[in-house]
Write a structure and sequence with these properties.
There is one protein chain. Helix content is about 35%, strand content about 20%. By secondary structure, it is an alpha/beta fold. The protein has two domains: about 120 residues, 3-Layer(aba) Sandwich (Rossmann fold); about 100 residues, Winged helix-like DNA-binding domain superfamily/Winged helix DNA-binding domain (Arc Repressor Mutant, subunit A, Orthogonal Bundle), CATH 1.10.10.10.
């Protein structure tokens, strides 16, 4: 598995590259955001992204990467504040690891992210390429989710989603109107051994609401979890907060 490490501090990058190499990873190293963006043209399997880069903010690098690629991104940074984690996740990062950390913990995060982004959540596809496409669930009002192509359209307009955002939306749409507990969502869309911050789910729900044009599509059942609903059908006692 080939990783791209975007980290300007050689005192961190050197030991990290060596340590990951002992676990069988090949690591390409970029010292600036611009070099990192250029390095993704070689299609790494996963990006390890520091936020404190000399030429540009790592959040801007994350935004640029996500706009053109679905490559998994793990942020590794000394910025441990919750606001930074939430912004990074909303921009499309798949996980966030605050310094200092051990190589074994990072390897566990890499493996967990790889499991999630390589098809931990799967959907039926046609049994044979020549067979007619198996129809998915009907559109929910103006919302159409194509699980085979992993495309989402709202009122005919395609909505760009990260892999995790698509998995979350598709999971909720499998049983619209049903409230899913936070733990159930995390266990299914992420995995039962997810290592990330507790606000990961909230950040992804917030990002989905923003991309869908407002909070009405995903409502909150206070103290329980979330459900997907066609706007105007919100049940009493639930909120889009």
């Amino acid at each position: 598995m080939r990783l791209l490490l975007i980290e300007d501090d050689d005192r961190i990058a050197g030991p990290l590259t060596e340590g990951l190499g002992r676990y069988g990873f090949t690591v390409d190293h970029a010292r600036t955001g611009a070099a990192g963006l250029a390095g993704t043209e070689d299609a790494p399997d996963l990006v390890l992204l520091d936020l404190g880069l000399p030429d540009m903010d790592g959040l801007d690098v994350c935004r640029s990467l996500r706009a053109r690629s679905a490559v998994p991104i793990i942020m590794i940074t000394a910025r441990g504040e919750e606001a930074d984690r939430i912004v990074g996740l909303e921009l499309g990062a798949d996980d966030y690891l605050a310094k200092p950390f051990g190589v074994r913990e990072l390897v566990a995060r890499i493996r967990a992210v790889t499991r999630r982004t390589s098809g931990a959540l799967t959907y039926p596809t046609p049994a044979h390429p020549a067979a007619p496409e198996t129809p998915g669930p009907p559109p929910l009002g103006a919302l159409d989710i194509n699980r085979r192509t992993r495309q989402v359209r709202l009122a005919g307009r395609e909505i760009p989603l990260t892999p995790r955002e698509f998995d979350l939306l598709a999971f909720l749409a499998d049983d619209p109107g049903t409230v899913h507990s936070r733990q159930q969502i995390m266990d299914t869309v992420w995995d039962p051994h997810f290592f990330g911050p507790t606000k990961t789910l909230d950040a992804h729900v917030a990002a989905l609401r923003r991309k869908l044009g407002g909070p009405a599509w995903i409502t909150t059942a206070r103290g329980v979890g979330f459900r997907l609903t066609v706007p105007g059908d919100n049940a009493q006692g639930e909120t889009a907060e």
